[in-house]
Amino acid sequence: MSTDTGHFELTRTLPLTPDRLWHVLTDGKMRETWGAPEEGMVLTMEVSDFRVGGSETHRCGPADTPDFTVDTRWYRIDAPHDAAFTETVHIGGDTIATTLVTYRLSAEGTGSRLDVAVAVSSFTGPDADGEFKAGWEAGLANLEALVAKMAA
């Protein structure tokens, strides 16, 4: 099977300043609260080393069987403006995809504009691009809900 590729970009305007939003985006414990894509799913950080060259590992999936292991590697961290990292996703010992993710934050009014760019390399077929986009959209919806509570 060949490697399939895709790319998507998502933008959100959120009611926290870039400094406050940066923490929510990059802190491992904070990501556990918004990163799971849907109800009944979890994202559990196992290792978090947030620094350029640092690695992280988290598990995600249904709460009773979080079968996906995600290895993250941080390549650029320019707080609170941008970050670039890769996420390689494994299930059952097989690597299914790698993504390159870029966060860009800018002040907008009293809050922030968040731009997320994701390039996907799928090793399991062309449907992964849409699945990753749906997962990111759901995670960002969770982020919006969390940030709204924090801003209130």
Q: Runs with pLDDT <50, length 5+?
A: none
- Individual helix count: 3
**Strand order, largest beta sheet:** 1-7-6-5-4-3-2
> What is the strand tally?
7
Q: Specify the overall morphology.
A: globular
Output the helix-strand order: EHHEEEEEEH
What's the N-to-C terminus distance?
A: 49 Å
CATH H level: which superfamily?
Answer: START domain
Reported for the largest beta sheet, the result is:
7 strands, antiparallel
* Mean pLDDT figure: 96
Alpha carbon gyration radius:
15 Å
Beta-strand content estimate? over 45%
Tell me roughly what share of residues is in helical segments: 25-40%
CATH class equals Alpha Beta
**Count of individual domains:** 1
Secondary-structure-based class equals alpha+beta
Under CATH, the topology is which? Answer: Alpha-D-Glucose-1,6-Bisphosphate, Chain A, domain 4
CATH architectural name: 2-Layer Sandwich
